[in-house]
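Many introductory courses stop at the sequence. We go one step further.
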Amino acid sequence: MVQLSRLLFSFSLLAAAVTTPVKRTVAQVEADIASISAQVTTLDNAIKAFPNTGGSLAAALAIHTDATTLESTLTQGTSDVTSTGAVSETDGRTLLNQVEAFEPTILDGLVQIAAKQPAFAALPISGIPALILQDLQTLKTDTVNFADALIANAPATLKTEATQLASNITSGFDTAIAAYE
């Protein structure tokens, strides 16, 4: 009976260890933002490389692949930010600066993809604009979730600036989405 109790106690400890959420660190969030930044640059470069006329289906699908990779990273980043919890003023400033550094790249990609809607619509497979619309909508949702998590954990002194940054990016998504609706 004593051994059975020990065994059950051991299993309950193991189960608690497996189900307890792992607290993330600011360093992990910084790494997530660096990864997001790199993927935003990759996606922006793919969009810029897509010609205004005569683009290929392969290039359009590569953009879709880049978008889905970014979606996954944003989702993981949101999870890590949420697990990290509130951050200090210094850490909050560092994270905000990282995001501000690639804001122009995000906005450029959104302007470019909106402008290239006719090129995507001219491809021989008619579903590409719908696929891009879906990617834009999902990326917007994932970006808003990531921004909301960062804002929730930011010190009060940075919330207004972070909210404005998120608003600028959301507005860019709205414009790009409108081009495909």
